[in-house]
Design brief:
heterotrimer, A alpha/beta (337), B mainly alpha (308), C mainly alpha (312), A: 337 residues, alpha/beta, eight-stranded mixed sheet, four-stranded antiparallel sheet, 12 helices, B: 308 residues, mainly alpha, MetI-like fold, 74% helix
Chain lengths: 337, 308, 312
């Protein structure tokens, strides 16, 4: 039994311009103690997917079109607000991207941590304060007693994100969703925050869904990876599968577009040409086809199914069909500019 | 030090207001004894003028007035001949203040509530309904609302007294009449800024903690959204405490509000000055309190560069 | 998954894929705004009523054979009829004509007051809020501007009105000036409060570090974000001005008879409501309320339209 199982999730957004198909037919699962990374560029639907697990997709304009999200054998999508409240913050909690705007500027840090405890644990005021200070210490904030009394604007960016993590971990959740937790931070701070998350994860054995566009972060933290593109999950597998045996051209393109500090050989960074699909009217076939140098006739009109590549490794790409020519065949042809 | 400086500036402001009022007042033609001039002999008029120093040159009058003002002596009303301005204020101000504060509390409680509800149900029935109510509230001036209130709630049904002052029941109708328009404005301000706040990231963070909708709104919403309401309420508070001419006139309330208007028409100089200084003092203090409360509401705000 | 025959022939490298994105029609900002206003139902309703009210304010009086000043005591206090669509007042003057004649006065005063509120209030409030707490010089600018505001608040405006009446001839212009001199201070305080909070946002810091001038930051970054409170406050200013004029007329300082304004008409009718001549108060009251509703509705719609978060 998985801790969390997302099946065929589909979410639309109503806007002035029409309905945006933000998430289409996304399925994945998270096991206990596992760190699953969801990678993809901006607008690929990774954040919306994460928010929907917490019931945080604003409705309206968001519409859950279908699918299911099962957490500990409970269907989250059918829960009332009240039922969901018991899970939010205690069983599942979330760390957000921008620590500058995600903390309430007019509430003391201590109070923002305590709020979580008050709503889920039966603790006295004294105990709650003790626990809050303890949490601040746990996330390596110096002088937690005096920091407890301060407001977010008196914290640096990195410290705010630590405070966010303290809030998220307050009730020892089973699942932590981290939505680009390091994107808004300095590089050196990024490393520290990641290190902290990894340590805490080891200590508590909390499962994590890590949303990021940074493959370096993925390699460091995750066991499994799900790659999203144009609102769809195009490939998923273990870190090893994705980094070394990728079966989707988009994933490979993504890997080629990031610098690898550790490798000694000089490799050219290759950007992926073109731009993501218009989600108002996504293409009938594979969303990546217009940018894919291996595109075939079948890709344009037919949505590729999830092909089983190996154990728990799937890819939505026609290249994995038995009829498909090998990649080498494309390479030997003339490269399109 | 900062506080001390602020107080000094506050006195200075009141002094400037008093001086300008004095100048304007003397510049306007007219005579406090105009209506009496036919009855009184020339000699009596002369005596009266001398009594109020109106026979002195204006700069001398000004210096004399300011000297009295330092000892907080606001002089004697010319109209009533015997009553001191201090006693007029002492008698009228509490009545106006009770009424004004009551109206403000009503306007704040209901205004905030309606504004928040409207924001929470943005573009739904409750939003439209409360904004319709607010528009009606703004659109009906108190001097039109008051007669209707009197007709329906006092004359026709007899539940409430028609006018005058005495028991708590007497305050109900004037309070409603006074509160209606500010209530509507507060509701609109609150809706507008609450909508903005509800879009912020930290609201999502708070929501992700699984706290109740009520504490989400109360603890995270209101404090971040209330600033425009505070800006609006500051001067409103001053003018409500200082009394309202129209309402006091319609309901025959012995407050201080009508003296502002009456004294100007009667050229009752000491009363003009006294009521103006009284009002400016309240105004200056409330605006100072508003500035301080900005900082208390949002700890990031700096009104003065030396604060930290 | 759609079933289809997996034909080997489909697995050929695709020859031509259109790389060019399907562009949504590229419209100018102006067109965009107009389209969005038209999409906002509430704004349309408001706009419709505004157009109707302005139409009658311009053409209403000439639709009836009567004039706003013509008295006919035999026709006094007549209920609305075919002859007199809105009835007549105590001097037998046609209420239809007087209502639309009054519309001109009241709308002029209301709009002028709103204009000066915007111009002075937003500018002074913006500068004051932006400068406060920056440095010593900024504090001083804020302090001076706010003291001016307090002083203008403090001086009894009735005195100012009378003074102006002495200096100038009584009339609409004098009333407008009198209301404008003191009217903007409320807006200034509210905008200042908003800017004090808004300038803490990071985009302001970013703009400052990029060397954007103070004026540009205030106008392009701060003021547009106070649009919500500006509109709310304007919808309050306009009726306040209309009522202030009514009050001035009430104490004999406003529009002089035989001219009319909605405020004076409502005032004249206050005493007679209890005796049953409802139309005397109803029509001017209705027009004031309708105008307010229209401005409010249009303002709300505008607020939604100009809020960039609502763009697609």
């Amino acid at each position: 039994m998985h801790l969390l199982e997302v099946k065929n999730l589909a979410i639309n957004f109503k806007t002035y311009g029409g309905e945006v198909k933000a998430v289409r037919d996304v399925s994945f699962h998270v096991d206990e103690g596992e760190v699953v990374a969801i990678v993809g560029e901006s607008g690929s639907g990774k954040s919306v997917t994460a928010q929907s697990i917490m019931g945080l997709v604003p409705r309206p304009p968001g519409i859950i079109k279908g699918g299911s999200i099962i957490f500990k054998e409970q269907e989250l999508l059918h829960m009332t607000r009240k039922e969901m409240r018991k899970i939010k913050g205690s069983k599942i909690s979330m760390v957000f991207q921008d620590p500058m705007t995600s903390l309430n500027p007019t509430m003391r840090i201590g109070k923002q941590i305590e709020e979580n405890l008050f709503s889920h644990k039966k603790m006295s005021k004294k105990q709650v304060k003790k626990k809050a200070i303890e949490l601040l210490r746990q996330v390596d904030i110096p002088n937690p007693e005096s920091r407890y009394e301060q407001y977010p604007h008196q914290f640096s960016g990195g410290m705010r994100q630590r405070a966010m993590i303290a809030i998220a971990l307050a009730c020892e959740p089973d699942l932590l969703i981290a939505d680009e937790p390091t994107t808004a931070l300095d590089v050196t701070i990024q490393a520290q925050v990641l290190e902290l998350m990894r340590e805490l994860q080891k200590e508590t054995n909390t499962s994590i869904i890590l949303i990021t566009h940074d493959l370096g972060v993925v390699a460091e933290m995750a066991q499994s990876v799900a790659v999203m593109y144009g609102g769809m999950l195009v490939e998923k597998g273990t870190v090893n599968d994705i980094f070394h045996h990728s079966a989707h051209p988009y994933t490979r393109g993504l890997l080629k577009s990031i610098p690898n500090v550790e490798s000694t050989e000089k490799k050219k960074l290759v950007p992926i040409k073109g731009s993501p699909p218009d989600l108002f009217s996504p293409p009938k076939g594979c969303p990546f086809a217009p940018r894919c140098k291996y595109a075939m006739d079948v890709c344009i009109d037919h949505m590729p199914p999830e092909f089983e590549i190996g154990n728990n490794h799937t890819a939505r790409c026609w290249l994995n069909h038995t009829h498909a020519p090998g990649i080498d065949e494309f390479e030997s042809r003339s490269e399109p500019l | 030090m900062y506080i001390l400086k602020r107080f000094l500036i506050m006195f200075l402001t009141i002094w400037v207001i008093a001086s300008l009022t004095f100048v304007i007042m003397k510049f306007i033609p007219g005579d406090p004894f105009a209506s009496d001039s036919k009855r009184l002999t020339e000699e009596v008029l002369e005596n009266q003028r001398a009594k109020y120093h109106l026979d002195e040159p204006i700069p001398v009058q000004y210096v004399m007035y300011m000297k009295d003002l330092i000892t907080l002596d606001l002089g004697t009303s010319i109209q009533s001949n015997t009553r001191s301005v201090n006693s007029i204020i002492k008698q009228g101000a509490p009545v106006s203040a009770v009424l004004g504060l009551q109206a403000l509390v009503v306007a704040l409680i209901f205004g905030l509530f309606i504004g928040i509800i409207a924001a929470l149900y943005h573009n739904q029935f409750l939003d439209y309904a409360s904004m319709m109510l607010a528009i009606i509230g703004i659109s009906i001036p108190s001097f039109i609302l008051a007669p209707f209130l009197i007709k329906f709630l006092a004359v026709d049904t007899g539940i409430l007294p028609v006018a005058s002052w005495g028991t708590w029941k007497h305050t109900i109708l004037p309070t409603i009449a006074l509160a209606a328009s500010p209530l509507a404005v507060i509701a609109r301000f609150m809706r507008s800024s609450m909508l903005e706040v509800l879009n912020q990231d930290y609201i999502v963070t708070a929501d992700s903690k699984g706290i109740s909708r009520a504490s989400l709104v109360i603890k995270h919403g209101i404090r971040n959204a209330i600033l425009p309401v505070v800006s609006f309420v500051g001067p409103l508070l001053a003018s409500l405490i200082a009394g309202t001419f129209v309402i006091e006139e319609i309901f025959a309330i012995p407050g201080i509000g009508r003296y502002y208007v009456d004294s100007i028409f009667n050229r009752d100089y000491p009363v003009i000055m006294g009521t103006t200084i009284f009002f400016s003092a309240i105004l200056v203090v409330t605006l100072f309190l508003v500035d301080i409360s900005y900082r208390l509401i949002d700890p990031r705000i700096k009104v003065n560069s030396k604060e930290e | 998954m759609s079933e289809f025959k997996v034909d080997k022939s489909l697995f050929q490298p695709a020859e031509s894929i259109d790389y060019t994105e399907k562009m949504r029609p590229n419209r100018s900002a102006w067109q965009e705004t107009v389209t969005n206003i038209l999409k906002s139902k509430i704004a349309i309703v408001g706009l419709f009523f505004l157009i109707v009210i302005f139409f009658f304010a311009i053409f209403g009086p000439s639709m009836s054979p009567y004039s706003h000043s013509e008295q006919s005591l035999t026709n006094a206090n007549m209920a609305p009829s075919k002859e007199h669509w809105f009835g007549t007042d105590h001097l037998g003057r046609d209420m239809w004509v007087r209502t639309w004649h009054g519309a001109r006065v009241s709308l002029t005063i209301g709009l002028a007051a709103a204009f000066f509120d915007l111009l002075l209030g937003v500018m002074i409030g913006g500068i004051s809020g932006y400068m406060a707490g920056r440095n010593k010089r900024g504090d001083r600018i804020d302090s001076i501007l706010m003291r001016i505001v307090e002083i203008l608040y403090g001086i009894p405006y009735l005195l100012v009105v009378i003074l102006l009446m002495v200096l100038m001839e009584p009339g609409i212009v004098t009333i407008i000036i009198a209301l404008s001199v003191t009217g903007w201070v409320g807006m200034a305080r509210i905008i200042r409060g908003e800017v004090l909070q808004l300038k803490l946002e990071e985009y302001v810091e970013a703009a400052e570090k990029l060397g954007t001038s103070h004026g540009r930051i205030i106008w392009k970054h701060l003021i547009p974000n106070t649009f919500g409170v500006i509109i709310v406050n304007l919808t309050f200013t306009i009726p306040t001005a209309i009522f202030a004029e009514a009050f001035l007329s009430f104490i004999g300082l406003g529009v002089q008879a035989p001219h009319a304004s909605w405020g004076t008409m409502a005032n004249d009718a206050l005493g007679v409501v209890l005796s049953g001549e409802w139309w005397r108060l109803f029509f001017p009251g209705l027009m004031i309320s309708l105008t307010m509703f229209a401005f409010n509705a249009f303002g709300d719609g505008l607020q939604d339209v100009f809020d960039p978060r609502n763009r697609d």
